[in-house]
Amino acid sequence: MRRALPIGITILTALFVLAALFFKGAIGSYLPYVLDLAILLMAAGVLVAIAFLIIRQVNKIRLNPAKSAPSLVLVFAFAVTLVAGLVYGVENPVYNRWIAAIQRPLQASLLGLSALVMVSAALKLFQRKGIDALSVSFSLSAVFFLLLGMNISRLVINPQLDAALLTLSQVPLIGARGLLIGISLGALLLALRIVFGIERPFDER
Amino acid sequence: MLPLTTNDLLALLIVLGTALCLALVHWLSGGTKNGRLRLPATAERIDFLLQNSSEEGKPVLLNLGSGFSQHPEIAGVLGLDLQRMLIHRSMTADHPSFVGSGDGVLALVSQQISRGLYRDALMPEYFSADQAGLQALGPMANLAGLLSMIPENKPSGVLLFGSFTPEYLLALDQATGTARLGVAGASTPSSQASLWLLADHSALGEDCFAPVSTKKLEKQSLVGLRAADILRVLISVALLAAAILKVMGEF
Question: What ipTM is given for this predicted complex?
Answer without folding.
Answer: 0.86
